[in-house]
Amino acid sequence: LHIRLSAVYSLTPKVSFDVVIKGPLDKVLGLMSNLGYEGVELNIPNPFEVDIDHLRRAVKNHGLEVSAISTGLSYLVYGYSLSSLEGELREKAIEFFKKYIDISDDLGCRKVVIGLARGRCGRTDCKSLRDNLVNSISTLNSYAEGKDSTLLLEPLNRYETDLINNLPEALEIIKAYSNVKLLFDTFHMMLEERNVYDAIDRAGPYIGHVHLADSNRLAPGLGMLDWERIIYRLVRSGYNGFASVEARAEPDIESLLKTSASTLRSLLI
Ligand code: LER
Ligand code: MN
Question: Is 41 a catalytic residue?
Answer without folding.
Answer: no
